[in-house]
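Lab manual, section 2.4: Encoding a predicted structure.

Procedure: take the sequence of the chain (209 residues), apply the prediction step described in section 2.3, and record the output as structure tokens. A sample record is shown.
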Amino acid sequence: MTRPPTAAQRRLIDAADPVTGRLRGTDAQLTALVRQGLAFRHPRPPHDHFLTPAGQRIREAEPGVPAPPDPAPASEVFAARAGGAREPVPPSAEARLREVRGAWQGLLELRRMTNPDGAVDRPCGWERGHLVRAAALALEAAGHRPATAEADGYRVRATPQPDAVAVYAPDAAALSACAATLERAGWQPGEYTEPRTRGRYLLASPRRV
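Recorded output:
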């Protein structure tokens, strides 16, 4: 279990950006938070540090009150839910909602920092390198529910095309809703029919301009 942060670390966590969880501090301070699983260093320049879900919970806890236990190992990074029977269901819907919202805001900040013109209305390089995770996050952040062993929902899958994912939904209305969400998130979705099953699906690519 991660030991409680020091008073100095708690001040750093409390001062993080309220929307993105972006941290400011010395290299030593930030590295210590990363070791404890309370922060992560973004892989792309300028390599800023952000709070993990465990760090977010500490910030939201009352001073002097221990934060709720992390249901996952502290070293585990947030993972978008692409939908599938074997995908674990989060133990707390409320905690998951906070994590998803924080991850989406962090992604918008990453767009602002890495898109040449600072645009947040279209995907950035990281999303084009992680198509399934990026599309799944856009859908879950907008309130769509992924498929599980107990319930049907959206499913995002890789395709042979290097710049596109396939999105499946339980019915035509849900598929249209997914298309609208992805379009608002800066993707270009198109609806197609599978030759064998005649089922409808979306083929979505990140918009570049």
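Check your result against the sample. Residues 1-69 form a domain with the Arc Repressor Mutant, subunit A fold (CATH 1.10.10).
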